[in-house]
Design brief:
The complex is a heterodimer. In chain A, 19% of the residues lie in helices and 35% in strands. Chain A has helices at residues 14-25, 63-77, 139-149, 153-156, 167-178, 250-254, 292-310, and strands spanning 2-10, 31-35, 50-54, 60-62, 80-83, 86-92, 95-100, 103-114, 118-120, 136-138, 159-163, 182-187, 202-203, 206-212, 219-224, 231-235, 238-241, 245-247, 279-281, 320-324, 328-332, 335-336, 343-347, 351-352, 355-360, 363-369, 373-374, 380-382, 397-402. In chain A, the strands form 8 sheets. In chain A, strands 1, 2, 5, 6, 7, 8 and 19 form a 7-stranded mixed β-sheet that branches. By secondary structure, chain B is an alpha/beta fold. In chain B, the strands form 5 sheets. In chain B, strands 1, 2, 3, 10, 11, 12, 13, 20 and 21 form a 9-stranded mixed β-sheet that branches. In chain B, helix 10 (421-428) crosses helix 12 (457-467). The chains are: A alpha/beta, B alpha/beta. Bound molecules: flavin-adenine dinucleotide (FAD) (2 copies).
């Protein structure tokens, strides 16, 4: 079956729902959101704890409540949200192939907004050697298992090791403990002096070098940690690999959108336009995990450029590439166009009161010491004034940091 | 149809099997299937909780033409015949096979000098279609090859195949044709005797007139149970990396190394699932359970792979695994009939057993006759059509008519591999249902994709519990 809509949004997480809601409210016409999961709401649906802002009366929201609110808001604004519907590929520049229990469809749109989120790299992609037992998972998998099966030891085990040092490792620890699983240790490569996870022992400067066990995990071998450089074994029946995000860029790549090398998300300009006219990208798809409100704000912000397109404005081409250098891991957006945009920057490691610089073709545009420190698990936002003076006909803009 | 996993072995304790095949890898399953052509009482007995859970699940999945076999060996003959038999069987039953052809790429003068000799060897093995390619011709065929490739030998016909479906197809057809399959049933002792042997398992005793040892890595240990010590199996580990489907466009053929004095080297090959595989290593070990990967092994593979296909290393890795070849210190299979014992050992099925499986089975059928088995008349096997796991063939999630008939085939559960609820349900209610989630993965690909279960594992487990063990 072939159908046409005005805007097709792929992914009903915070970013996609916010984009759809704003577009529907602003009269973009028929706005449809596709979600492959049985329910809309995205990752927050699986985060059963506060941490998603507050409702109108100031009461803290947990993930599921935040998800429900996002869905309701999009529906109220007039968007259509279809669940259990997977976008599986492109049949044309703005036409997606879709599989659902109701059948196959080819949906054509005047604009496509990709909001497919991000996931954690599994053990294999991190090249962790050893055997292939059950009990090896990511935080995302853990949360879904606990939500679905509760505290049953078969899927989630009894003694767990958590790998990683980002806030998401904290989530994993909390989820495990709430499910009655003993957390034996947190293993983090980070050499930070003080990483505290409640009463859970933390091995800093340590890496998991091998998984042990046949059938079920029986332990992990760790090198380093607490000054020890020898290998030692932690006995456990579950290991959760946390963080290490990779955007879910399958549709983006399949559609030929160039990726930004630092993030592996599609390269966009400040208005969330990709290299393919009519295709936008928002949310975690751009670079891995940011808080839900950030993803939602991007969805809303993208609406203006989508409306421009629907109104017949031309698709600006090119733009100046933006790159991260030095101890910075990535910067988004990857392209700067005529409309200035704030920059989101991540550092590779902890930087105490660094000097951030912006240069183009070797010429300094801005140089400023930031107060406080940059940490690898949180982005800093640089106001759009940071890119004042960029020459749109010039070479790449480089954002760097000096300690 | 009899498939058991738990409890005492069923049936009349005084009944005697005509043949018991021990080991349900690709070889044992093929043998059981071959015997199922005859009105015999046959059991296939396996220590693991699923078929194909040993070496047969972890190989490089190539259907070899046998062009480089040692001419004159049993292996050379059975690989050549096996290639022909399995190609035809795959067509008939829906096992995915892609005849991509292979390129043996020479990276230095010494290797280039070897190519004509390999072409001659191929000719002696009956392959007259090989062709030498210049560097320029090679570039056209494989534009992403790294710098320094000098020439290549093209071997048409080398194919990639789905090893999981192959083993499952044999076992399924055997069971549907009357073979009894007992899983979780390690044979721990053998009491040889006349007119029958007694096989002692934890689930009871099996009595059989004829016995086939298809125990793979443990063929020597099983031989010892009947008092034979003809060879020792040394596990030779092969570690492998499977790259993301986005790597698939980088390679069009099976890229084989030119065998040389510095060992066999690694290959790069597409998989029928649409990925790209790099490996295997070759490490002689003494632990038959050492199927783990190592940091050194994986780093070495990446280094070698990066020279062959540099862009490969920019792609994500989907899976890492290792398999163990059954080396016996002889460049040939160790297949032997012991008529006095009414016993056949199928050992040393090294690195070509998947390809040769159907030919090995025919050969063993003959050896059993030499051991006094009167098979009786031939009869047709139960018909079989396997679900398709191959990317080159239609998959259910794109099949409008199927979805219209059964909406579950439009409900994608594993998003990375596009496995539908309908396929999972079908696997869980099939002739040989999987014993766990790994067996389900080998039947459907569910949880086998780039996210390795991040998104789908909870849902897959839920469907498993709905239709799987809970429902049985
Ligand atoms: C473990 C964890 C804990 C977190 N904790 C917090 C917290 O406490 N507070 C906070 O503010 N944020 C938190 N976050 C971050 C927050 O969840 C994300 O910022 C937010 O979900 C990102 O929204 P998104 O719309 O970009 O992506 P997602 O929420 O990932 O949504 C993407 C959606 O797209 C769908 N999709 C993908 N591909 C397709 C396709 N081909 N067809 C159809 N649908 C598709 C997916 O099913 C998914 O529902 C957490 C994240 C994680 C993983
Ligand atoms: C890295 C690697 C790459 C390879 N690549 C290829 C290739 O590209 N093409 C190709 O054709 N071949 C290839 N092979 C070879 C092929 O995989 C093997 O030859 C084949 O799988 C052997 O099958 P099998 O049935 O003999 O052994 P297995 O699959 O190991 O089966 C033996 C079975 O016997 C069972 N068993 C053992 N002892 C007992 C007992 N006492 N009681 C009950 N059950 C028992 C075991 O549990 C096991 O399931 C490769 C092998 C490896 C390791």
């Amino acid at each position: 079956m072939n159908r046409t809509v005005d805007v097709l949004v792929v992914g009903a997480g915070p970013a996609g729902l916010a984009a759809a809601g704003r577009l529907a409210a602003l009269g973009a016409g028929r706005v449809e959101v596709l979600e492959r999961e049985p329910a809309a709401g995205g990752v927050p649906r699986h985060c059963a704890r506060p941490g998603f802002g507050a409702d109108a009366r100031g009461r803290p929201l947990d993930g599921p409540a935040y998800a429900r609110r996002s869905v309701r808001a999009a529906l109220r604004a007039g968007a259509t949200v279809r669940t259990g519907v997977s976008a599986t590929g492109w049949a044309g520049p703005l036409t997606l192939d879709v599989t659902a229990p109701t059948g196959l469809e080819r949906v054509r749109a005047r604009a496509v907004v990709l909001a497919t989120g991000a996931r954690e790299r599994p053990r294999s992609a991190r090249l962790v050697p050893g055997s292939r037992p059950a009990g090896v998972m990511t935080t995302g998998e853990l949360q879904r298992l606990v939500l679905r099966f509760g505290a049953r030891p078969e899927p989630i085990g009894r003694r767990a090791v958590v790998v990683g040092g980002d806030p998401v490792a904290r989530n994993a620890v909390r989820t495990l403990r709430a499910a009655g699983v003993e957390v034996v240790a947190v293993v983090t490569e980070r050499a930070a002096r003080r990483v505290v996870f409640g009463s859970v022992p933390v091995l800093t400067g340590a890496v998991v070098t091998e998984l042990l066990g046949r059938g079920r995990l029986t332990g992990v071998t760790v090198r380093g940690g607490d000054g020890r450089t020898n290998r030692h074994t932690l006995r456990c029946d579950t290991v959760v690999f946390t963080g290490d995000w990779i955007p879910d860029h399958e549709l983006a790549r399949a559609g030929g959108l160039p990726l930004a090398p630092g993030t592996r998300g599609p390269a966009t300009d400040g208005a969330f336009r990709t290299a393919v006219p009519g295709v936008f990208a928002v949310g975690n798809l751009l670079r891995g995990v940011e808080p839900a409100v950030v993803a939602a704000a991007e969805g809303r912000a993208a609406a203006a450029a989508v409306l421009d397109l629907l109104a017949g404005h031309p698709w600006p081409d090119g733009g100046v590439p933006v790159r991260a250098a030095g101890p910075l891991r990535w910067v988004t957006p990857g392209l700067l166009g005529p409309v200035a945009a704030p920059l989101l920057v991540r550092s590779e490691r902890r930087l105490v009161r660094p000097v951030l610089t912006v240069t183009q073709d070797g010429a300094p545009l801005r140089r400023e010491r930031v107060s406080g420190s940059l940490v690898p698990w949180r982005s800093v936002r640089l106001a759009q004034s940071w890119t004042d003076g960029v020459d749109l006909g010039g070479g790449p803009v480089v954002v760097a940091a000096e300690e | 149809m009899t498939v058991t996993r738990t409890g005492p072995l069923p049936g009349d304790p005084d009944a005697v099997y005509d043949v018991v095949v021990v080991g349900a890898g690709v070889v044992g399953s093929a043998i059981a299937r071959a015997l199922a052509r005859h009105p015999l009482r046959v059991a296939l007995v396996e220590a693991a909780n699923d078929v194909g859970d040993g070496t047969s699940k972890a190989n490089t999945a190539i259907l070899h033409t046998g062009f480089d076999a040692l001419p004159g060996t049993l292996e050379a003959r059975l690989v050549r015949e096996g290639y022909r038999l399995l190609s035809a069987y795959a067509q008939e039953t829906g096992i995915p096979v892609e005849p991509l052809g292979a390129l043996l790429v020479a990276w230095d003068e010494e290797q280039r000098a070897t190519l004509p000799r390999l072409a001659e060897k191929a000719e002696r093995n009956g392959h007259r279609t090989t062709r030498l390619l210049t560097a320029a011709e090679l570039r056209v065929r494989e534009p992403h090859l790294g710098p320094g490739a000098l020439a290549a030998l093209e071997v048409p016909g080398e194919s990639v195949v789905c090893p999981w479906t192959t083993t499952l197809a044999y076992a399924t057809q055997a069971v549907r044709s009357g073979v009894e399959l007992h899983l979780n049933c390690r044979v721990e002792k053998v009491r040889p005797g006349d007119p029958y042997h007694r096989l002692v398992t934890r689930r009871g005793v099996l009595r059989t007139r004829h016995l086939v040892n298809a125990c793979g890595l443990h063929a020597d240990a099983f031989d010892a149970l009947v008092g034979r010590e003809d060879f020792t199996v040394t596990p030779r580990r092969g570690q492998l990396l499977v790259f993301d489907k986005f790597a698939r466009d980088l390679v069009r053929h099976i890229l084989l190394p030119v065998p040389g004095p510095l060992g066999k080297g690694v290959l790069i090959a597409p998989t029928v699932y649409g990925n790209v595989m790099l490996g295997p290593t070759a490490e002689d070990l003494d632990d038959k359970t050492a199927t783990g990967t190592t940091a050194e092994g994986l780093a070495g593979l990446r280094e070698q792979g990066g020279r062959i296909l540099p862009a490969l290393l920019d792609e994500e890795v989907t899976a890492v695994y290792a398999g163990l070849r059954a080396a016996t210190g002889q460049e040939d299979y160790r297949i032997a009939a012991h008529p006095g014992l009414r016993y056949v050992t199928v050992g040393g099925i090294r690195s070509t057993g998947l390809t040769a499986s159907l030919a090995i089975a025919e050969h063993v059928r003959g050896l059993l006759a030499d051991c006094g088995l009167d098979p009786g008349p031939e009869r047709p096997l139960a018909r079989l059509r396997m679900p398709n796991l191959g990317e080159a063939f239609p998959r259910p999630y794109r099949d409008a008519r199927l979805i219209a008939r059964e909406p579950d085939f439009g409900s994608i559960v594993c998003h990375c591999e596009r496995v539908t609820r309908g396929e999972i349900r079908a696997a869980l209610t099939s002739t040989i249902p999987p014993g766990g989630l790994d067996g389900l993965r080998r039947r459907t690909r569910a949880r086998g994709g780039r996210c390795q279960g991040h998104y789908c594992s909870a849902e897959v487990r839920a469907v498993f519990e709905e239709y799987g063990e809970g429902a049985r």
